[in-house]
Design a protein that fits this description.
There is one protein chain. The chain has 557 residues and is mainly β. It has a domain at 191-309. It is built from three helices and 38 strands. The strands form seven sheets. The chain has a 26-stranded mixed beta sheet that branches. The protein is globular, with a radius of gyration of 23 Å.
């Protein structure tokens, strides 16, 4: 889908365009009862309405996601109080338009200005305060109008968001597909997950309105063990692939979708709202509303709706055998980029006197690593990818965000260290921003880091050290949280591959003709005997997606 950027003010405060050809999609279907298999990933849930299926989550015909065709023009309906979530939908007095829904307040990191929710740290129309506009040659950085460099879009952008990003390095093709297949979990760890404070993981679909607490869809997966010493609530699935250690929850826990544990499960007090599959001993206090499948006897504190005694196998939930080749991608883009089309110096942020703000059009751009001592902002207008060779060190405010209708993919061969405020993406549309870190240095999420996007640090340990919120997803080689962990997963990320040249959708009894090795090659759909096709079991889907009517989807009821 070649999406256009059009309409009114946006979170980034950038320019707008018209044209383009987005396509809307139909909502996905509801869930179905789980199949009879007891291998990990096979148990479905009793269904209701699902999230948007393949092709879903788009804008109205002719407009990109988060937009609607109002009066013949694509209008961003995410913060327009007169067209909030749709044409002519006006918010009542006392409410603001927040992520396409009328609300009494704005999402984190945004402020209410004239009925709209905007980022006053980066908005050129509301810089630092409502109604404060930045003049020509300036842009908003950390709430102040400063020198800005706005690069004009090359012809390939077509007056809008331009074509989807095709990385073209190894197996990595379209960035929409990469994001959709990489971020299927709210938290995913190649090794273990250790939690020493409270946990809350839930989900929402940013194409359907703002975040609301307690929606299903945000899952937690570890190829190793999961240990928690405090309370937790997971409004999605939870998987552990460790046979020796499994899952240990030392306080009260609630799991609102299926639980898959290859090893033992020791729960101080756990409530499982759906089905549980446990490959080892089940001890402690566990209440399973649905079916408990386990090969061993259970203790007296275990209750269930139905018990099935059978072996349980849980495949690794996280794709760690074949990690994203971030360093190789960045190296390839040193020469294969669009810098020349806009006369972009790769060292623009490394030189003394660099602009405080740069506005990039659609395309693929290569930058050298940089160390900031002054505030800076990068805003992407269109489908944009930035490849950064080295590390980013931010000693002052740094923001990197797309405007709605486009997308921003950032590949950093090293890591990011921020000793001041660091913002990436937007809580209004986390699915549009994906950050990939190739370095092995521990990536620490502190109170000064505000993320409205999806972060991959598959070669590094991720440390969560402060009570903060993340809207999106995080993927690490190892994961530890020493402070309250609050992640609100944007289910829309798994439909971002719709913007790419898609494989034919699964058709009952028909071979798609697309060869594959795993479900990842099929955009999270089933890979059957080397061809993408219709699933017949959830075990054929990329975890934690589940099979319904031949398609692998997120079931949220």
């Amino acid at each position: 889908m070649a999406a256009a950027s059009c309409g009114g003010d946006d979170d980034g405060g950038g320019t707008t365009g018209t044209g383009g050809a987005g396509t809307g999609g139909a909502a996905g279907a509801g869930g179905a009862a789980g199949d009879a298999s007891v291998t990990g990933g096979a148990g479905g849930v009793d269904g209701g309405g699902g999230t948007a299926g393949a092709g879903g989550g788009g804008g109205t015909a002719g407009c990109p996601p988060y937009h609607a065709l109002c009066g013949g023009q694509c209008t961003y309906t995410g913060n327009d109080p007169k067209n909030c979530g749709g044409c002519g939908v006006a918010c009542p007095a006392g409410q603001v338009c927040s992520a396409g829904g009328c609300s009494t307040d704005c999402m984190p990191g945004l402020d209410a200005c004239s009925g709209s929710c905007v980022d006053t740290q980066t908005s050129n129309d509301h810089c630092g305060a409502c109604g404060t506009k930045c003049g020509a040659g300036t842009g908003c950085v950390n709430g102040s109008c400063v020198t800005a460099t706005v690069f004009q879009p090359p012809q390939k952008c077509g007056g809008g968001s331009g074509p989807p990003i095709d990385v073209g390095v190894g197996d990595v093709k379209c960035t929409g597909d990469l994001g959709a297949t990489t971020f299927t979990w709210a938290v995913c760890s190649c090794k273990n997950i250790k939690l020493s404070s409270k946990l809350l993981v839930d989900g929402f679909d940013s194409t359907k309105g703002p975040y609301k607490p307690g929606e299903l869809g945000g899952g937690v997966g570890a190829n190793g063990w999961i240990q928690a010493s405090s309370e937790g609530n997971v409004y999605g699935q939870i998987w552990s692939g460790s046979i020796p250690q499994g899952i240990k929850a030392g306080s009260k826990w609630g799991v609102y979708n299926d639980l898959q544990c290859a090893g033992p499960l020791d729960a101080s007090e756990m409530t499982e709202a759906k089905d549980a599959y446990v490959g080892g001993a089940v001890t402690g206090k566990l209440a399973v509303a649905g079916t408990l499948t386990t090969p061993t006897a259970t203790g007296g504190g275990v209750t269930y709706g139905k018990l099935v005694t059978a072996p349980v196998t849980v495949p690794p939930p996280c794709e760690c055998a074949k990690k994203v080749p971030v360093a190789a991608i960045v190296a390839a883009k040193k020469t294969a980029n669009d810098n020349a089309l806009i006369s972009l110096d790769p060292a623009i942020l490394s030189k003394p006197g660099h602009p405080d703000r740069i506005d990039l059009p659609c395309g693929q751009y290569y930058l050298t690593g940089f160390s900031l001592t002054g505030a800076a902002t990068i805003v992407a207008h269109g489908h944009t990818a930035i490849y950064i060779d080295g590390d980013i060190s931010a000693g002052a405010f740094l923001a990197m965000t797309p405007e709605p209708g486009g997308s921003l993919d950032i590949f950093v061969s090293g890591t990011i260290t921020a000793s001041s405020d660091f913002k990436i993406g937007s809580a209004n549309f986390p699915a549009l921003t994906r950050l990939y870190l190739g370095g092995a240095t521990t990536f620490t999420l502190t109170s000064n880091v505000v993320i409205g996007g999806n972060v991959w640090a598959g070669n590094a340990k991720v440390m969560w050290t402060s009570d903060t919120e993340l809207f999106g997803a995080v993927f690490g080689d190892d994961f530890e949280a020493t402070a309250a962990l609050n992640i609100h997963y944007d289910r829309a990320v798994v439909t971002q591959g719709d913007e790419c040249k898609k494989t034919p959708p699964p058709d009952a009894g028909t071979d798609s003709g697309i060869t594959c090795g795993t479900c990842k090659d099929c955009g999270n759909q089933a890979c059957i005997s080397g061809s993408c096709g219709q699933c017949s079991s959830s075990a054929q889907c990329c975890p934690p997606l589940q099979c319904f009517n031949g398609a692998c989807v997120q079931l949220v009821k």
